[in-house]
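Invent a record, attention on tokens:
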Amino acid sequence: MIRTAPIWLPVAGTMAVAWYGQTSFARYQLELAPAPAALMGAFLECLMIGTNQRAHERRRMGDRAIPLRVFSAVCAVVASVMNYWHFAGPGFAPTQKAVTFGVASIFGFVYWEITSSAAIKSTLIRIGLRPAPRPIVTAAAGPRLSAARLVVRTVLHPWWTYRALDASLTDPMLSPLEAWRAAVNQHHSRKVSKSTKKKSR
């Protein structure tokens, strides 16, 4: 549980903030008693949890679970509107509380989608339902090349980056350095071919 804390703590935090906003909306806008208002906020959050969990299970089996994910997004938008509505100023003018509670539900949904997608990708790669990610084709200086140098190399040599990527698509087994060398060799071969054609004319 401690090892997964970085995943569930942000979700629990945004859900708690969203639950408080939805409960306040039900309590003061819908004029419900405290207990039903709290239950209404909890129901909406539990509905989103159940939908997200079901979608996560479906995606682990290779299904995209689009209907479940769309429904979860709709729930997040509804909760966000409820929170903003309750804390907004006159004429639905934005306030600090309105913005904070309004984005809580959206952030929770987006964070879940990001972490779930990353976990699903790893699972599908492991069981063979998805190909492994292509290597970073700009790492011509070796695997210890820093991220900053990778960015600089890509910016300074976009054409070579494109050619190396093309080579890695042709042969996914190529290492980053091999892909880069294949791109260079391909470029030189084309230059020689063009030069030979010009001389033959």
